[in-house]
Amino acid sequence: MSDQGLSYQTAGVDIGESSRAIRAFKDAVRSTFTPSVLSDVGAFGGLFSASFPGIREPVLVSSIDGVGTKTKVAAMVGRFRGLGHDIVNHCVNDILVQGARPLFFLDYIASSKISAEIVADIVEGCAEACRAVDCALIGGETAEMPGVYADKELDLVGSIVGVVEKDSLLPRSDIGNGDLIVGIASDGLHTNGFSLARKALFEVGGRNLNDPVPGTQSTLADALLVPHRSYLAPLWPVLPRVKGLAHITGGGFVENVPRILGAEARAVIERNSWPVPELFRLIQSDGYIADEEMFTAFNMGIGMVAVTASEDAQAIVDHLIEAGERAWIIGEITKGARGANIV
Amino acid sequence: MSDQGLSYQTAGVDIGESSRAIRAFKDAVRSTFTPSVLSDVGAFGGLFSASFPGIREPVLVSSIDGVGTKTKVAAMVGRFRGLGHDIVNHCVNDILVQGARPLFFLDYIASSKISAEIVADIVEGCAEACRAVDCALIGGETAEMPGVYADKELDLVGSIVGVVEKDSLLPRSDIGNGDLIVGIASDGLHTNGFSLARKALFEVGGRNLNDPVPGTQSTLADALLVPHRSYLAPLWPVLPRVKGLAHITGGGFVENVPRILGAEARAVIERNSWPVPELFRLIQSDGYIADEEMFTAFNMGIGMVAVTASEDAQAIVDHLIEAGERAWIIGEITKGARGANIV
After folding, report:
1. For the whole model, what pTM was predicted?
2. Strands A265-269 and A339-342, bridge-based pairing
3. Which A residues in the span 156-185 are in contact with B, Cβ-Cβ below 8 Å?
4. pLDDT 10s digits, B73-126
5. Which among A59, A159, B88, B213 would be 20 to 30 A from B226, CA to CA?
């Protein structure tokens, strides 16, 4: 042994810090385990029984995603737990649009320098959001990558697997002329558009995180960091009456709604049919951002869109409001080339 | 529309570049689709039939991981395709140690600035490695995160789901005194220890990527970038005779081998029982790195360890050599507190 010798720690990688994080979040992770989980925290891979009673032809639905540069705002404010909710709920919604309920989730956290406290905070946030939707957090990884990440920055990635009865897969193929579009309120930006929002608010607008959002009781920090909303609980009971769901994420209405349409169906969305939250108005005015850009980069106050037969739409809106959501009929499907018009 | 207005592109996020990447890698991704895949490239989530003929009690095994700062070496050399092999094979090996064969894989690539060429190269590498092990690449995400990643740096994350018959789960619980340890050769560092290796070779040792590795025909760039080896094909036929497998990743022998042992079993590994490749010797001498640190940070030339009954060990080594691997009996299991001794 040489005192001058290099070690992993002098190279900027501290394995001990990851171990400390695991000890801190272990109980929270275990609290998400459903009876199908067959492994404990720390196994090479997570084990999950592939038995799905009551489902005749089970189909696994999987997705992977990150939270984008919302991590930068979290780092600026020093508040990380909500990011765990963000990534879990983002993933839950992504597979819900295919009709699936979540089975299990895995997280990946990487940074230039791992902090046990921050990792534990994020993973505990993931565990809270997983518990709320009966999803098991069965695996994860932390990586310390000096030189790859900018100082004090981190990325958070989640991967989810859910299950759906093959016959119940969404979207259905019968979306067409006359169907109505129901929009369900988002809780702010969710996890999309943060690079543009930060540029507009902080660089062009010169605002600070502690500034209020005009017309609200909220600071910018609070408004930006509200976690991504999960639509599983309110939508699950009405899924049999839904023809298709579009999760309004990167690409906004313009790119996401057409993904559930056939070649000859076009969505017409009436922009005045719901109240666009003040935060989006502020971003648009600070950044002098064109309307079309706003509807491509942001959810504009609608986190999930459901397409239903015209006769079902109002009942679904009523159910959603009953379930604690804010929801509106925001447009309809017409004949035309696949796409979306915001009118 | 204002000419001075911000757009996602002026904020440093180019959605068009991601679309170009998808067009470039789409065919490669489709070429990995097994008959169980029910979705196409670009769906919200990947769909995979949960029907496992021939398996009585299927258990899903899942894992998520990254390739660490091997990405930095790839970026220095400008050669990215191998990273796709790295992440797929790393994940394949991680679930193989529980006895599982891969079903499907998802990738996540994030960078300060997305390059369609680099993303396509990585995803095509993932597709090649997936095809080689009959694993479907059913989803992925690219994220452009200016300010989170250092300039020109990227991270690559993979998530895998496999399946195993519950009765065939590894490790078995009967690993004990007198069992032998078989080591299978790695192809270099695989995806672990890069921060320490770079510091030793480039900062302390003052070497360049084009320098030769002494005693070999290889440059440092080539030796460092050899992809992670998959052990699925050579090990699959002998898995019924294997009691436990340990994938030698972060934490090296010291941390990974004990993970498959009961409380009263200890691994004794004879360091002279296989040839430690020149690359590891060079890293150690350049960085003045202690032996123990080497065996904790690096695989030291052994990528996978199999524990077998003493009477099976030589036949398994013979099979592995027949299958094109290099393999040795490198130690044995003794009574003692759970752990590993390198002697």
Report:
1. 0.95
2. parallel
3. 157, 159, 161-163, 166, 169
4. 999 999 999 999 999 999 999 999 999 999 999 999 999 998 999 999 999 999
5. A159
